[in-house]
Amino acid sequence: MNKIFEIPLYPYTHSPDQDASIPVRRKVVVIGAGPIGLGAAIDLAQQGVEVVILDDNDKVSFGSRAICFAKRPLEILDRLGCGQPMVDKGVEWDVGKVFFDNREVYSFNLQPETGHRRPAFINLQQYYFEEYLVDRVRELQAQGAPIEIRGRNKVEAIGTHDDHVTLEVETPEGAYTLEADWLIAADGANSPTRRMLGLDFVGRVFEDNFLIADVIMEANFPTERWFWFDPPFNRGQSALLHKQPDNVWRIDLQLGWDIDKEREKRPENVIPRLRDMLGDKVEFELEWVSIYTFQCRRMEKFRHGRVLFAGDAAHQVSPFGARGANSGLQDTDNLCWKLGMVMAGKAPETLLDSYDVERIHGADENIMNSTRSTDFITPKSETSRIFRDAVLDLSEQYDFARPLVNSGRLSVPCTYDGSPLNSADALDGPSRTRPGSPCPDAPLGDDFLLSRLGGRFTLLTIDADAPDSFEEDGVEVTRLALSVRDDPTLELKRRYLGDCDSAVYLIRPDQHVAARRPGFDETHFRTALRRALGKE
User: Fold this and answer.
1) Measured torsion, CA atoms of residues 277, 265, 201, 325, in degrees rounded to the nearest 10
2) DSSP assignment letter at 59
3) Element of type H or E holding 278
4) Cross-strand partners of 472
5) 372 near 406, Cβ under 8 Å?
6) pLDDT band for position 496 (50/70/90)?
7) DSSP string of 473-522, one letter each residue
8) 3-state DSSP of 380-403
9) Considering only CA atoms, which of 526, 440, 529, 446 is closest in space to residue 486?
10) Structural domains in the chain?
């Protein structure tokens, strides 16, 4: 059994801030050293922003928790400097299979097109993910980046002010007070920050429970996502099977609503359920067991003055669809470039209001898809169950029925349609790269587009003339000049030109499209940059 979650990775050490006669003011404090908090801190530190991470723990999370990481978050992690360890350790998969009763009704491929650096999905235990993020923090510290992680620093009280936030922090050596210009709350679904500020969720709690177990076993199952409706080993319910590294398998079993949760988590009750599923000949060992009640909820606002909520602290969805950690990383990807611009005086503070607009749009999209998945998986009436079962029967032979099957619509990046940062679309190009869209990757010889874009404002020109750079109000935009000749596969043309002969794109630091035109027009792109910075 992997013991990484028992080893302190960021043990408590005394900070000079604890001895200060008046509270020390830090630029940004992040509460929570999980994937979202660490990701936010790394992003800010790479911009040169001072950031302190506080966590009441001193080690990675117990159990695998999040396991499925989609292509877009892996691309974000590449820019944070820790995507490659994830992919190296993770189990790649593209194929999912759906079963009804004891028969396979159909399969699907999540990555039907080529020309992407990263796979559609990897499976990786969360404790590895957190370890790689902590490793990246240490690497940045060694390079002199202004980032610090303080284990066993528990925030007990928060005071909000117009220009800062005050935190009362408890440590093994006693309490101290810390101030922050900005506070990012990434302290999970049960967020103490949210509670201390008297804030709550709105949304829906589903009357169902699922047993989630990580099982260590040698098995011949392929590296695929298998989902069962009404299987023989869990009649009237559902089940899910995923492979992880180190011969660890994630198993989800639907249990129903009226159960004794503590009783169902006991090994003497869990093991017979798993034995029914896996058979008597498979030897296995339990690594982690929990019971989830699915919830699809969010805060009404993610920004509250100088306190910014991200990840599960801001929104919750059911695990089916892998929308939790994946959407949380997209939160910080959206937030941190904006916060960096505001703190550098290059954008007005109101730019942060667009974080609310864009990521609430993303949360609502995830909640909608997760709610539909959960309603399909757990029908709430006999009529709904009859409809679902008919769809499953038809999907075995008829293509038209397969899109109706919903075993968890898997995470895809959000397009910020209607964002106030978008300029009007001025290119009759592919819909997938319209303003607000995340840039799809494309091959460029031995390289890929997204690695060339980096994390800055970029003027992407494809077979179009433009200056090498331009500056507006202290923000520099650097040109990346490409030609369809750079990609003999023509994926660059298909994804960014379509039937057009040329194109110029303004790309945001989070690699979302802000504007596009057939050619470069300086006035237009200066205006588009100002709009993307919240100045128009």
Assistant:
1) -60
2) S
3) helix 267-278
4) 475
5) yes
6) very high
7) TTEEEEEEEE-GGG-TT-HHHHHHTTT-S-EEEEE-TTSBEEEEESS--H
8) CCHHHHHHHHHHHHHHCCCHHHHH
9) 446
10) 24-92+119-201+296-365 (3.50.50.60), 431-532 (3.40.30.120)
Residue 296: what are its φ and ψ, rounded to 5°?
Answer: -125, 95
44 close to 51: Cβ distance less than 8 angstroms: yes
Q: Quick one: which H or E segment has residue 290?
A: strand 284-299
Find where tokens 């319910």 sit: 237
Write out the two tokens for 235.
Answer: 């009649």
Could you give the CA distance from residue 144 to residue 45 in angstroms, rounded to a whole number?
10
> In sequence order, what DSSP letters do the residues of 180-235 get, joined into one string?
EEEEEE---TT-HHHHHTT--EEEEEEEEEEEEEEEEE-----SSEEEEES-TTST
Q: Own/partner pairs for 301-305, CB < 8 Å, 24+ apart?
A: 301/356, 301/360, 302/331, 302/355, 302/356, 302/359, 302/360, 303/352, 303/353, 303/355, 303/356, 304/160, 304/197, 304/199, 305/160, 305/162
CB 415, CB 438: distance < 8 Å: yes
C-alpha closest to that of 314 among 157, 155, 204, 188: 188
Q: How far apart are CA 480 and CA 443, in angstroms?
A: 14
Tokens of 487: 């990609």
Amino acid at the residue 480: L
> How does pLDDT run across 66-96, given as a tens digit for each residue?
888 889 999 999 999 999 999 999 999 888 8
Map tokens 């966590």 to a residue: 55
pLDDT digits (tens, 9 = 90+) for 400-429: 999 888 876 666 788 999 999 999 999 999
